[in-house]
Amino acid sequence: MLKDMGNRSYSSAKNFAVVAAIFSSSECFIEGYRAKNDIYNGAAAGCFTGGVLAAKGGAKASAFGCAGFAAFSTAIDYWIRHSD
């Protein structure tokens, strides 16, 4: 049972690393391209990440992935920027 839990934890860690790598690299690229550090970079990177992760499901899944991840990224970015 402990070995199975370790295997599942390792798999989850790999998936999280893939999501984080896609999001952070796309946000860095977008920020460098726009030469601005604002909330729109995270929204665009979230849209790209969600779309890429849902691409196997087709265009509709990619659109929903884009919208969902962009909304989540924007909300987190807004909260971080406005928490004093």
TrEMBL record:
Gene Ontology CC annotation, any one: TIM22 mitochondrial import inner membrane insertion complex
Protein's membrane topology: Multi-pass membrane protein
Location(s) in or outside the cell: Mitochondrion inner membrane
Species of origin: Linnemannia gamsii
Example GO BP: protein insertion into mitochondrial inner membrane
Name of this chain's protein: Mitochondrial import inner membrane translocase subunit TIM22
Coiled coil region boundaries: none
Top-level division of the source organism's lineage: Eukaryota
Family that this chain belongs to: Belongs to the Tim17/Tim22/Tim23 family.
